[in-house]
Amino acid sequence: MGVTRSGYYSFQKRNKNKPDDPKHKEMLEWIQDIAESSGYTYGYRRMKAALNILSYPVGRNKTKKLMVEAGVKVRSRKKYKVTTNSNHKQPVYENLLNREFKVDQPNQVFASDITYIWTQEGWLYLAVVIDLYSRKVVGWSMGSRMKSKLVCDALKMAIWQRRPQPGLIHYSDRGSQYASKAFRNLLKIQGFCGSMSRKGDCWDNAVVESFFGSLKQERVQWKSYQTRYEAQQDILNYISMFYNSQRLHSYLGYKSPNEFEQEMAELRNVA
């Protein structure tokens, strides 16, 4: 029939991926659903991982093409200025962590920081505590004032949820809230070891800064909060319903923190 072997197989391959192929349509629908549920924050790497989990063995290039065909675009990130008041006379802890962010067991190293979100009522301050083992947000506190109580309440929540043992390392920047007497006393009572970043070096606390970047890129910058309460509820929803339980983290092998912790706990029980 005047058709080469390679031409025939090439035709078959193209025909399999035609838009009227049911599997092709399914993937497009899944991409649209995943994009919507993630707030249009998944790039092709996370989208590929999500499709693979759903038993669609696609690669990066195929995922890119499918996202274009599905009309899915990733929201771009705005730049945010990070400020920390380290000009105080309170004592500071030495840097025990030294950018060693990989931790093999839960409840060994907590990292903390503060950020702020604008509302029509004024600034809302958010303090978080992250377990470096799974990148899970294990404690948080929000308020209209950036006082030591804000960071103390976030750590108390983490303690209540995780029940860590004495010897845990708590890592933060040199902000006055973390150097305050109230916070230092809380660490002492719990038997925790304080650790602080070098002055003016945000990379020393890169894990928490990354979380704040994700929060603002994926949720906050697309909102216009009228009240602090509205912002609090939306941020709470992001942390508990999406970031900890659904968001795929490349560091965790494209698993959510909750899924990663559950799988690791099952492996330890088997061992």
From TrEMBL:
<feature type="region of interest" description="Disordered">
    <location>
        <begin position="1"/>
        <end position="23"/>
    </location>
</feature>
<dbReference type="InterPro" id="IPR001584">
    <property type="entry name" value="Integrase_cat-core"/>
</dbReference>
<dbReference type="InterPro" id="IPR048020">
    <property type="entry name" value="Transpos_IS3"/>
</dbReference>
<dbReference type="InterPro" id="IPR012337">
    <property type="entry name" value="RNaseH-like_sf"/>
</dbReference>
<dbReference type="Pfam" id="PF13276">
    <property type="entry name" value="HTH_21"/>
</dbReference>
<protein>
    <recommendedName>
        <fullName>Integrase catalytic domain-containing protein</fullName>
    </recommendedName>
</protein>
<dbReference type="Pfam" id="PF13333">
    <property type="entry name" value="rve_2"/>
</dbReference>
<dbReference type="InterPro" id="IPR050900">
    <property type="entry name" value="Transposase_IS3/IS150/IS904"/>
</dbReference>
<dbReference type="InterPro" id="IPR036397">
    <property type="entry name" value="RNaseH_sf"/>
</dbReference>
<feature type="domain" description="Integrase catalytic">
    <location>
        <begin position="102"/>
        <end position="265"/>
    </location>
</feature>
<dbReference type="InterPro" id="IPR025948">
    <property type="entry name" value="HTH-like_dom"/>
</dbReference>
<dbReference type="Pfam" id="PF00665">
    <property type="entry name" value="rve"/>
</dbReference>
